[in-house]
Amino acid sequence: MTMNRQGRQTAGEAGTEPADRLDTFTGNRGLRIEEPLIFEYGRERETGVDLPAGSEEESLRLGGLERRKPLDLPGLSEPETMRHYVRLSRSNYAIDSGIYPLGSCTMKHNPRLNEAVARLPGLSDIHPLQPVSTVQGALELIDTLAHWLKVATGLPAVAMSPKAGAHGELCGMMAIKAAHQAKGDARSIVLVPESAHGTNPATAALLGYKVETVPAREDGTVDPEAVRSKMSPQVAALMLTNPNTCGLFEPDVIEIAKAVHEAGAYFYCDGANFNAIQGRVRPGDLGVDAMHINLHKTFSTPHGGGGPGAGPVVLSEALAPFAPLPWVVSNGEQGFDLVEHAAEGDETRPFGRMTAFHGQMGMFVRALAWMMSHGSDGMRQAAEDAVLSANYVRACLSDLMSVPFPDHPSMHEVLFDDGFLYESDISTLDIAKALIDEGFHPMTIYFPLVVHGAMLIEPTESESKASLDLFVATLRDLVIAAKRGDRARFADAPRYAPRRRLDETTAARKPILCWLPRRPQADAAE
């Protein structure tokens, strides 16, 4: 038996239509099933579960509130329901199916070890309302994780309850507001650099602060003198993202922190990009007063799909007394306790609580499993490899694509702009859509806003050189095609995705939020 060296035909002859473009009777493309909404093929009076008819006695118990119309759910058998959701799952793109180069999002590999630990009995099946004596292991885990977060950041306190990045931002800024109020200092302004994450000004505004922007220098970083020029007795805090959203480390961060503290304000650092500096830099050494840490980014468990997340907030000595409840405290040999109320006369003055319980337990387990399996040297290497990957992509593409800030090396993500497309009629969006046809999830586009036509790529430490080489080669091929004027390749992309290019403007302005049955339209003559 000899090996088939010819392989399968992957494209039609020149001038012929690819098989993927041909119409079929079913709408399917081979084994890629065209999947309608579940309501579109569900049938009334059919269900995968048999329920007895209600009796008159049961109707009386409802006091006249029983349903009089059919339940508005699709009727399907159990196999049909299962097939529907399995087919939908096959339409998902995930880090387990390919590279996920979203800049500013840290979509890295989630080790299976994390999942195994998170499913252990005693961790996966406990309830937050159980007696404290029955969840000592869980409290010890939270306390251990909190300890290593403080060690990694060089800050003395941490609030564990925030459930994601923006929630953590809110926690840190509420602690800052409480600290000012405790001193009788009613400050009203928060400074936010242009290179910060977009949630930063939103958080400050939510708390009633007036947001003032600090412009970036030509090299994409923040000038300490620009911060000083904005300082006044009304400034409560500066919210700085470091490394910033341009993928650059702020070289003057210590001088910036000094300017903030001299004015009696606090330094809030957005820690969403901690994956670039963990094990290399301790934010506490830079003068940071508060920083949220996205456990679901830095310590695996990628957050695509909406969660769940966890956003513990580390706090300086000045802000530690205002950390929100609850706290896990060690009572030595007696075990651990969950403090729900601050004692009278205590030096602590918590501003309240962020959530009903103690945070995202599943994320705590996964994050600690990742940290312990890597160790301090492994965490440092993860940061170094993430930075290496980003700079490798930059070096491989900078001869064809334009780098807006060439004077600084990239950190964990590399930023390109659309300058290399100016002489073509191809846009950043066209490049992103064409990447889908090549089997890649697009990078983050049009963000950060300080760069026109931005393309932000974060390969993370998870990707092999071979994986990065294929991604780079694909981008090079697309850029060359764009510069050559091959408009046809981009105009209708993506052509091979389950759905073609959408009218995104109309979709945003006129969203269809729920399914309604089609109604027959009357002819104009009627």
TrEMBL record:
GO biological process: glycine decarboxylation via glycine cleavage system
Documented EC number(s): 1.4.4.2
InterPro entries in the cross-refs: Aminotrans_V_dom, GDC-P_C, GDC_P, PyrdxlP-dep_Trfase, PyrdxlP-dep_Trfase_major, PyrdxlP-dep_Trfase_small
Catalysed reactions, as listed in the record: N(6)-[(R)-lipoyl]-L-lysyl-[glycine-cleavage complex H protein] + glycine + H(+) = N(6)-[(R)-S(8)-aminomethyldihydrolipoyl]-L-lysyl-[glycine-cleavage complex H protein] + CO2
Residue ranges constituting the Glycine dehydrogenase C-terminal domain according to the UniProt record: 382-477
Statement: the UniProt record of this protein carries the keyword Plastid: no
Pfam family, one: Aminotran_5
KW Nucleotidyltransferase (keyword) present: no
Protein name from the UniProt record: glycine dehydrogenase (aminomethyl-transferring)
Domain Aminotransferase class V: 175-304
Molecular function terms, GO-annotated: glycine binding; glycine dehydrogenase (decarboxylating) activity; pyridoxal phosphate binding
Superkingdom classification of source: Bacteria
Keywords, comma-separated and alphabetical: Oxidoreductase, Pyridoxal phosphate
Secretion signal span: none
Purpose: The glycine cleavage system catalyzes the degradation of glycine. The P protein binds the alpha-amino group of glycine through its pyridoxal phosphate cofactor; CO(2) is released and the remaining methylamine moiety is then transferred to the lipoamide cofactor of the H protein.
